[in-house]
Structure formats: structure tokens, C-alpha cells
Amino acid sequence: MKIILLQDVAKVGRKYEVKIVADGFSRNNLIPRGLAWPATPANISRIAELKKPTVEKQTAENVDFDKLIQLIKEEAPIIKQKANDAGHLFAGLHEKDIAEILSKKFNQRVNPDWIKIEKPLKTVGEHEIVLNLKDKQISIKLMIEKI
Hints:
The protein is of the alpha+beta class and 147 residues long. Helices cover 37% and strands 31% of the residues. The longest helix is centred in the middle third of the chain and has 34 residues, at 41-74.
């Protein structure tokens, strides 16, 4: 049976994709739980209308991400944080904290989901972080200095 997914479903597909699944799986699981609609012409046109805001949001997010990358290339980010004499920060920096600091510094919206770090940053010095948006990925150096 052909269905349109209304949410991401593990091992089936992503939101708004049209997929072919077993009839019983769609009738007994996906459709009753509100995870999918049958792929009729009327439902396909309804999904096209529902996708418009999502596509516009993704386009705006791509533009913001590209602006941020350009700003970082022009000026390497330096973050000043409180640290002890040994160079350990009093509070570790997580993705959310880094996003807030970068958005204030560059006056640009930064989504915490774009930032990938292995573990919270807890020391003064140069750290490598990855900015990632779908297929775009860039590694940048972030300098943390003691106040």
C-alpha cells in the first residue's frame, strides 16, 4: 500500500515521504496511530500545502547557516569565560551555550543543533568544533580565553 508519512518513522521513512509498505502494517499500525495517510491524489495535494512552510523554513535556515559560516571565516570566534588559575572553566560549555554566545557575538541566529562537540568544553585554549547542517559541514577553531 502506498502511504504518505506524517512523521519520521524508524525503518520506514521521513516526514512527507511517499512509501510503499505492507497493507497490514499501514492499516493496523501507521494510519490508526496518525503516522501516515493513504497516498490518494487528494492527500498528496494536502501534503504539498503542508510542506510549503517547512520548505521555506529550511531555506531560511540554509541562509542563516551560510551567513554564520561567512562571519566565522572573516573573524575567528573568541569566547571569554571565567576560569581558575589552572585554566579549567568554572562551567562547561555545551552546544546550547556556544550557540548563545555565537549568536550574540555575530548578531546572527545560531541553532544549537548545528553545533557538534564530543563533550562539553571545560578548559581554556583552542578547541575544534563542527558546524553541521544536513549536507553542509565545516570544522572551526574556537578560542576560549580566561576573563
